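A protein record pairs a chain with a discrete description of its three-dimensional fold. The following entry can be read in just this way.
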Amino acid sequence: MRGFFRAAVLVLALALTAPNIVFAYMTLQDTYIALNVDDFSFAFVIGTSPLYSVPNADLLYGFPNNIWSTHTVVKVDNVPYDLAYLTPSSPLVAGGNFITGTKSIGDIVVTARWELVMNPATGPPRQDTVKYRFTLTNSNTLTAHSVALRLELDTKVINNDGTNISIDNGFNVITSNAIYYKSLNQISSNWWDYDQLPILARLVGRGYLKNNIYGEAAVEPDIMEVANWVDVNGDTQWSLSTPGITIPPGPTPGETPEPMDSAVVLWWCNGDDNSSGFVLNPGESRTFLTYYGLNSEPVLTTPTATRTVTSTFTRTYTRTQTPSCTITPTYSITETHTITETHTDSPTITQTHTVTDTPTITQTSSVTPTITETSTYSDTPTVTPTFTVTDTFTDTPTFTVTDTVTETSTMTATPTITPTYTPTPIPLLLELKGNFPNPFTIDTQIVYKLSVDADVKIKIFDVSGEVVRHQEDIAGKAGYNSFYWDGKNWRAKPVASDVYIYRVEASTNRGEHASGTLKAACVK
């Protein structure tokens, strides 16, 4: 492979936590990624290769040689054992692209294997991911045992020990201790961690929990935790974090990182954390497998943001008032007058008498006086009034009011981002990509692409036309799909070196059919 190299070396280093103890670790490295595994504890760290675009950077805390913070705990018959404190059954062994070793817990043999593999999302040629495989075998020929496994990964990307972790490729960042359960269908296919907020990230790690396209299928964990490392790390190593405890956010550019720590914990326990685990009958084995490495795939969907805006404002009034009043007064007035008068009378009377006198006379007098009276009054009143006034007003005001309003608004917007998938009615198309690796020695992965969801059947024949394996009722999904062939026939026996023909058939409930045939070579 052009530009690619691989190395497995044994390195000596001083343990930072125990200065007087010398321990050894083994290294795997290529052009993308580097892995160190401690020879005694089986603790391990991951970082980028010196040849990568972001060289020698952390993907797990302690890279390259402080490798004691990531823990693997095995529970046997309800008793947890941290592999870090168990003596190896044999020294680590390094191959071309893998490191393996064994430890024993009574009858249970634990085989750990770390391997550099191609990216489980994008496939060859990019080999930038570490596959962890832990196989537990019951060596007792008479007695069954229950087993479970807990893998704690102390995440750190570049210099951020409190990485931003997401289970939906950065649409949301987890900000408090969170626990997800397989029994509730809460386990996502992947998880990502970023040295900064996703839109600013310089380096992105990616873990695979199920449904990976390339490589051996990851075994879905029963529980996944995202939490503060201090809340999931302790002497017993077998306890859940407390949900809801805040995980401090990662630093923004220019800020000094806060003291914080983040971790991802995977549990294979056949239930919740109190479950006994899986029963291993005499001679039986069970494998737990997951991946973590570099993210090499962009966001595959365009998010649609629904924005909820909460607005708070302060309103200030300035009032200018011009009153216009119409007033109808009613008066009740009581007056007291004191008056002094002076009169001057000057009457003048002139009388005229006319007399008729006869000797026997019955006298009748008729006097008509004429009186001319002239009166002259001269009044000089002196008035000292005393007023008692009672006023009753009827007031009908008319106001003209001008309000000046000043508003200061503070708006808080909370976007809820939902990935948008727009289905397009298209016919059934099957694109057979091939099998990887090819040729293969032990196992291989058959990869195919569907245009729509379909029911899939896979048949594998030898050159004589005899059916070696036959798998029906596969729920194929639109996009890339893979079928893991463990290299065994229908009798569960490994097949011999030969050329094998595999046929993939797909059909829909609309009556559409598609198929493809290719060859796979087994070389042992």
Remarks:
- Residues 229-232 form the longest helix (4 residues).
- The radius of gyration is 52 Å.
- The first strand starts at residue 7 and ends at 14.
- The domain at 7-298 is CATH 2.70.98.10 (Beta-galactosidase; Chain A, domain 5).
